[in-house]
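Exam revision sheet. Question 4 asks you to relate a sequence to its structure. Input first:
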Amino acid sequence: METSRPAVSTPPVTGMPEAPGETAVPPDGEPESGLRPVRVALLLPLSGPSAPLGAAMFNAAQLALFDLAEANFTLLPFDTRGTPEGAAEAARQAVAGGVQLAIGPIFSAEVKAVTPVTRQAGLSLLSFTTDRSAAGDGVYVMGFLPRQQIDRIVGFARGQGVGRFAVLAPDTEYGRTVVDLFNQATARSGALVTRAEFYRPGTNEQAEAVKRLADYEQRARALAKYRADLEARGDDPDAKQELKQLAGLDTMGEVEFDAVLIPEDGARLRNVAALLPFYDVDMRRVRALGTMLWDDPRLGEEPALVGGWYPAPSPGGRGEFLDAYAKAFGARPPSIASLAYDATALAAVLARQQGDFGAAALTSPNGFAGVDGIFRLLPDGTSERGLAVMEVRRGGPAVVSPAPDTFEAPLY
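Answer key, structure tokens:
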């Protein structure tokens, strides 16, 4: 795992454990000579509303277990029930069971509830949250953080000559965070954010936000004034010709940005994108930009998004993982499931080194190669990842900037 990921093999389909803490092990029997037993806890919601997600994460962890674990490695699932209280209890059970490392949980509130338990026991925690505030002092955040996504897409766009940016974001905690990071990234790169508009999800504010972003009313007034000036020239043939050329236009002039970031997904993304040409933003001149929320092969069905760029994990290794998961478990996993594979694979590799899960081993500057590409854990508890840049096309996304395969040079 430290250099390249072995080919994914297909394990027997394994069901969920019947009770929290039941051991899942490779079928090899006793640990090999010279490798001391290593016990790792997997904290997931195995019951409650989030149980399907927990099941998918557990399945992904099993893929890693069968791909990479030696016979000395034992993975112990514990049910967090998807609540802070359940997560804390699961962590206490794991500590009582003598684990040397904890993986999970998924949700930020769960991670923060588990943290006092694992810290008191001196355990490192590889969590799946994207909440940066949960990181540090033995807690590592393996989720894809917004900052690295924004840095990647801004850096790539700047390299393609984009100098003026706009942003159209939902008025949510995520949206505001992304806009703050976007402002910082563009400022560092010497670019300008000329427009920033917010809208409340689930309301009709999207249209008004796009209208403001596009300077629609001002450009419409400019066109009306220009038409009036031409009409005032009476029978001037040049004026009449220009009036014919303006027929059917609603506005005149160009918008003041070369690219617009839209940190949305799903139907809301498609709806917002369709409003841009409706309010006379020429998407042949303006590049749409996204975050990893855009990782959807159907985006090319919306014409306004075709040609847009967004950051994403390297599709090669991830594609192998998705295919292996579907073959083993009969369905495609949720995107977050890859984190469970990578965390379990990392633990399995370190278990070969006599189970050293200390900070020095976990934060190796060389990093690791996972199904989502290279990643490394940083001393502050956050993670750094190598991301590709994808372009939205009608037939599906295509790589326009490959993900880096080493941390030897700055990523972006």
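Marking note for examiners. The longest strand covers residues 192-199.
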